[in-house]
């Protein structure tokens, strides 16, 4: 609804006819609805089909809900005290059914009309030979509603509102009143060319029908139109941001490749995969372009992102710049540091790690090395952002994130070079679905490593029930006899750490009993890092054959000789977590296995998760399934981002619309970047509105 700052749509909802200040206050508090705009944009999450009337003689138990037109014959109170209920006899001429109330009996008794004609709505259930609806919705039959033919919107409401008789029906009545008044003020927000090209309905129609559709088709078209608009503006903003950055920020130009050549000729520990080579080319193009790079590097677990990161760093260092890598946790930082140091030592460049647990003296050394330029690479956590961390010439920042670092944090990194913004490479720890990448990282260029290093055998994943345990243990034994090592992982029980540890300890004891001939390591969250490290080292050095652990081994472990991952209570893990865990094996040349243990009783969703794991090793495919099961809000990385406040679009289902929306935004920004053409006038005025009302837009001028 593009409008001037104060407009019809900024009117307080208390002025909606029949609403008033008291209820307005309640809606403020419960649903954060303040203005007409808020109210109109409070879309229902589903609709009930009230187009058809059912007959009592035709009811069946598979019906989710039935709508019946008939007459109230009689009612009586039955039972005593808390068992008391109101039972009414209702007939439509094809049969008799019962309507039952357990609550609000007195109120119902007063309001029901004997021999009145009603439309009742609710889920029918068969008791003995009689149909019954408990707490039905009751509407007095009127000439208006007698024909049926409408969809009842269902709004998300709170208990408090319901207690004050503000239900979906009530909301939809107010909505109708308001919409009839508001329609003339609603302006088109999309260019006519797009509306035509994608056969979209108008904004006015869409707003009306998303609330009060006349039929299923109208609802579908309304949703499609609003989804398109939402995703179009989401993509428009991201692409605009990208263009602004590209125009406004120069980047250091890296062309010298002496060190790089030396590394390639003498120290490269393996041949790069084609995907790694391609991605490195894409990055190098950015680094030579004179523009600041903002690129996302995606790749599955084990696809070899570390060496790509290192080679990128080398190019920066070759050209007199420094590089840093920031990780979200200390464990991840440690892991990166260890891996990068191996490469750095080969070619003799200086690297250090900075985290919260680095002491004062070491810190001072780091600061000195950064400032005089002798320290080439700094790896660390958020500690890198601190003010005392000043570089001689920071040229490249690599950000490894499970959770997207905020814009403010990135800005802090940029400011660490006053002359040129450093180039930014963002690495995701796990693959994310295409639609999510487009919406979360749509302002970045994207590179994907879609190939694993050759010579790796795909991990075999097997689902076993707890009753197969003896056979599974037998299998572990044969693998250990071949010289392999085994991980056994227990879930963290969220509600209780004590319970988690107990669960782990019980498991540990039964495994110790089953494998008296082998040495075991144990690692869990309650242990100090020294203890953990000691246990991990023993496992790494093959002093122990089995590592029993909670999910702490999810990150930061690389033991190529470990070839079996046994996951207990696999039903308690999320898909991406299972995939991450599985990625701990399959790092050597041997055939690796992942065994998922569960009991027999599995929910449908759990079954899908397990079947997906068994079916594929492809992290991108797994992330798509994860998205469809959980929705974007629950996926790792989206919670803190605040980027996904999508009202109508569903990233699990609307990939197609998103694709068209993005293409359209790209095309418009390419052909008419300043939105001068009359056709794009609606975009101009809508952006004006968004800028005044939404923080995401405030940075775009
Ligand atoms: P991730 O993408 O999960 O961070 P890593 O960079 O840790 O993956 O690489 C996983 C393992 O594969 C490491 O042991 C690494 O040395 C090895 N590796 C990476 N690239 C190749 C390659 N092209 N050929 C063989 N091994 C590789
Ligand atoms: Mg890695």
Main sheet attributes: strand count, strand direction, barrel closure:
7 strands, mixed
CATH domain class name of the largest domain: Alpha Beta
CATH architecture annotation name of the largest domain: 3-Layer(aba) Sandwich
The CATH topology of the largest domain, please? Rossmann fold
Distinct ligand kinds? adenosine-5'-diphosphate, magnesium ion
Mean pLDDT: 90
Gap between N and C termini, in Å? 20 Å
**Low-confidence spans: pLDDT under 50, at least 5 residues?**
none
Supply Rg. 31 Å
Instruction: Give the helix proportion (percent range).
Output: 40-55%
As a percent range, the share of strand residues is 15-25%
Distinct helical segment count: 24
Global shape: globular
How many β-strand stretches? 22
Which superfamily, in CATH terms, is the homologous superfamily of the largest domain? P-loop containing nucleotide triphosphate hydrolases
| Main sheet: strand order | 6-7-4-3-2-5-8
Output the structural class.
alpha/beta
Number of separate structural domains: 4
